[in-house]
Specification:
Elements lengths: L6 H15 L4 E4 L5 E5 L8 E4 L3 E5 H11 L3 H16 L5 E5 L13
């Protein structure tokens, strides 16, 4: 059976999921670029990074998780996460990018 869910309702459901699963994120100022790194406590690398130019970088594992749990494609997952960051952190996200598995993830001192 298929259900039609409006974008607003899907956002609400995913936002609640992200609130629950990312509630302990620490917000750290990046040293080597004007931005913020979001990471879980006691982890070396972050899962989100925001640059002062309005670009949000999202760790591919989070995109894959949202896509898998909610049955949406990576593009939609990326967009929903961007809207969540705008809503929860009042950041001006203009562009959202996926940081792939081949790159070093967001260290405290910036994107490598």
């Amino acid at each position: 059976m298929k259900y039609i869910i409006t974008e607003n309702k899907l956002d609400n459901i995913v936002f609640k999921y992200l609130d629950l699963n990312l509630k302990n994120l620490e917000k750290r100022k990046a040293r080597h670029y004007g931005g913020i790194v979001f990471r879980n406590p006691n982890e070396e690398y972050g899962i989100l990074a925001y640059r002062s130019d309005g670009t949000l970088y999202v760790y591919h594992g989070l995109i894959d998780e949202i896509s898998s749990v909610f049955g949406v494609n990576n593009y939609n997952s990326k967009s929903i996460i961007g809207r969540w960051v705008i809503d929860r952190y009042q950041l001006d996200v203009i562009n959202t990018r996926i940081l792939g598995s081949g790159k070093r993830y967001f260290a405290n001192d910036g994107l490598d």
